[in-house]
Write a structure and sequence with these properties.
This protein is an all-alpha fold and 385 residues long. The protein has 2 domains: 1-179, MFS general substrate transporter like domains (Growth Hormone, Chain: A, Up-down Bundle); 186-385, MFS general substrate transporter like domains (Growth Hormone, Chain: A). 80% of the residues lie in helices and 0% in strands. It contains 17 helices and no strands. The protein has helices spanning 3-30, 35-42, 44-52, 56-62, 65-82, 89-117, 123-148, 154-172, 188-193, 197-209, 212-223, 228-256, 258-271, 276-279, 283-311, 314-345, 350-374. Helix 3 (44-52) crosses helix 6 and helix 10 (197-209) packs antiparallel against helix 17. The longest helix has 32 residues, at 314-345.
């Protein structure tokens, strides 16, 4: 596995996805589409992941992994080229489902590749490098979109070009994701008994939280009296936190234990929202908190992903990765409406309550898992990683 090239390919594709999010949402707004319809359209990639991820082990068994990865990118390019040719909001639902679902499946394959090919002593660090590359690409993609605009073919050419560039890098990469000889069926009991409960529960929690800094926190900031520019800076700070903290969190997880780093990160992500209402009066301090919040919450993703390969191998790892991706997609679909309702119920502080509560629930689940494993015969000492 050539991690530098794999990270470059992932960053290029993440940049394409970042441009696509801004392009589609702004283009729909110019078409006069309602905010609700734009929100439904934005959910299409997550719906694609939710439906396609469980099929990943089956697809890996029947098709060469590298060919599957490149085929998904070709499908994504075809979908994005159809956007200006079919300027209809209803048709764009399907196009975004295909583009977002296809690119999302590529990222799931890359994560499976890194997880399966990394030594246990460096696995969390390697995934942290991938997460850093992904976040950097997504941020750059979103930042350059305003200079290109959302009219006509320029943004489409940029998205397609970045996707093709990513495909070319993937094509020249030596090796491929590990092959799957047989599809392993993992029961819920097997998942819980393996100790992977913390990883799977953690990604569900992260999926429900992930959109908060980029979607509703800007709204929170504006409702607290700051202007739109500060709202955008808060979202950028959260992404910056992921970029800055992904690799250090991975190194610490490899050295001191993934469960310890996951729970410490969740505890910090639980505490930080308590300081945000006061920090609004000091915008620079608010940016610092958002950077830390994005970083600690983001660490939950790469650390829990790395935990899977500590418990599963070969075909079981492919199935566990599929379960991981499915729960991530489920959380991504369910989280935004839950936080939106909380914000409406207690405007605007309900957002901080619902977001912080996610990490409290995760810590409760971690404690339950530790006690459950400690109570099993012959368990010795309970470990959460």
């Amino acid at each position: 596995m050539n991690l530098p090239l794999l990270s470059v390919a992932s960053a290029l594709l993440a940049a394409a996805v970042g441009v696509s999010y801004v392009y589609v949402d702004l283009a729909l707004n110019r078409m006069g589409v309602s905010a609700t319809a734009i929100g439904v359209n934005a959910a299409m990639p997550a719906l694609g992941w939710l439906l396609a991820t469980p099929l990943m082990p089956w697809a890996l068994k029947r098709f060469p992994a590298k060919a599957l990865l490149l085929g998904l990118l070709v499908l994504a390019v075809c979908a994005i080229l159809c956007f200006p040719l079919l300027p209809d909001a209803t048709l764009w639902l399907g196009l975004r489902f295909v583009f977002g679902g296809g690119t999302g499946m590529v990222f799931r394959l890359v994560e499976y590749w890194i997880n399966g090919a990394s030594a246990q002593t460096h696995r969390a660090r390697n995934i942290g490098i991938y997460v850093m590359a992904f976040a950097s690409g997504a941020m750059v993609g979103g930042m350059v979109t305003p200079s290109v605009g959302v009219d006509g073919w320029p943004p489409i050419v940029m998205i397609a070009g970045l996707t093709v560039a990513s495909a070319l890098v993937f094509a020249i990469l030596p090796g491929s994701p590990p092959a799957v000889e047989a599809v392993a069926r993992l029961s819920l009991r097997r998942l819980l008994a393996s100790g992977a409960f913390v990883a799977l529960f953690g990604i569900l929690v992260y999926g429900m939280f992930e959109g908060v800094p980029y979607t509703l926190m800007p709204v929170y900031v504006v409702r607290q009296g700051l202007d739109d520019q500060w709202a955008l800076w808060c979202a950028a700070a959260a992404i910056g936190g992921q970029i800055v903290m992904a690799v250090p969190a991975g190194i610490l997880a490899d050295r001191y234990g993934k469960g310890k780093v996951a729970t410490a990160s969740a505890a910090c992500a639980l505490i930080i929202p308590a300081f945000i209402p006061t920090a609004v009066a000091f915008p620079q301090a608010l940016l610092g908190l958002m950077l830390l919040w994005g970083g600690f919450a983001g660490a939950l993703y790469n650390v829990t992903l790395a935990m899977l390969a500590d418990h599963f191998h070969d075909s079981e790892l492919a199935s566990a990765n599929a379960a991981f991706g499915t729960l991530y997609a489920l959380g991504s679909l369910c989280g935004p409406p839950v936080h939106g309702m909380a914000m409406d119920a207690w405007n605007p502080q309900g957002l901080l309550v619902s977001a912080g509560a996610l990490f409290a629930v995760f810590l409760g689940g971690w404690l339950w898992s530790v006690r459950r494993r400690a109570g099993q015969p012959g368990s010795g000492s309970a470990r959460a990683d």
